[in-house]
Design a protein that fits this description.
Shape: rod-shaped
Number of strands: 5
Distance between the termini: 40 Å
Strand order of the largest sheet: 1-2-3-5-4
Order of helices and strands: HHHHHHHHEHEEHEE
Helix content: 55-70%
Amino acid sequence: MTRAYGFGVRGTLVDAAVAVVLAYQIVVATLDPPGPAFTGPAALVWPAAAAVAVPLVVRRRWPLPVFAVVAAVAALATAAGVVGFGVIFLSWVPVAIALYSAAAATGRVPAAFLLLAGLVAPGVTIPWLYLRTGVTPATAPQSEAPLWWQVETGITVVVIAAAWTAGRLIRWRRALQAEAARRLARDAVADERLRIARELHDIVGHSLSLITVKATIANHLAEERPAETRAALQTIEKTSRSALAEIRRLLDVMRADDDPAAELTPAPGAADLPELVGRLRSAELHIDLEDDGAGRLPPAVGLTVYRIVQESLTNVIKHAGASRCRVTVRAAGGEVHIEVTDDGRGRQPSRRRRGGQGLIGMRERVSMYGGRLSTGARPEGGFRVAAVIPYTPAEETA
């Protein structure tokens, strides 16, 4: 399993390979340096090189302890002279790598202390080694590299400071990426809340409007026409159950993962238009439905079509005073055409309220797909709602 700071099998293998290469290079540089050769036992060089390089294998998991160990070993090896004169910085490359990981894993203040420790250690031990051994360009004229402690210390300090800077830059980039991810998550939550609010308005507005109309009919015809009264009550019961199921489904989106899920029902789609029209038909309002290919629409587009037709018919019942209404849905050539017309008064309120309500809610739904919506009174009387929504034909459901 991948852990913080990229720890994993692949990272461990890479670090192990780097540690082996560095250990070998340190041994070679110590036994055959550009300057005076190491005069101590060769058997001491290998353990020293391994001690400074091998801890890098676990630098991703324990960056701070690894830096402490590697820096201490490098400082001891330098002070003892188990390094290659002229290329002493090679013994401090593992320290730079460990400091990179530690700087990327810690906050600003701890990272500053780590940088101070990483600079002080070579800044003290390298000059001490040169002063203790008395090595100068004059005492080693055959040296392949300039033997100045200032040069050796400067190169080592630059390498360590560059590694620390890279680690801080990586931490800064990770913080930016994390903030961007949080911002995207907040935007997604806000969009989902708007979608849920729109869905709830459509469900509640349509269902309560239909229930109100049917209840009024049942109240007026309870004694004279009991058959129609019973049909109205059945419609009220069916509509209220359907509305409750849809509201339960939407609200379940907002539940925590460990909450028991509510009983879910599939989201409505274009295939449910006949059932919707059947619920809304009555003796006062005759509704004709023409459906050509709408049942093969993608689920998201089908839901949008259903909500547009639902909202249009709700407006007809509430405001138009119509006796006939025609619903046409045709899907072909990557576009679905929706048209709802009635023979009512020819004027419906625009209801310029918050988004997701009435005609404005329809326009928002259509605009999400780059479609077009037109509404207005018909010259011959009544009102017309027409929408065109593009979609990808390859996404049609079988």
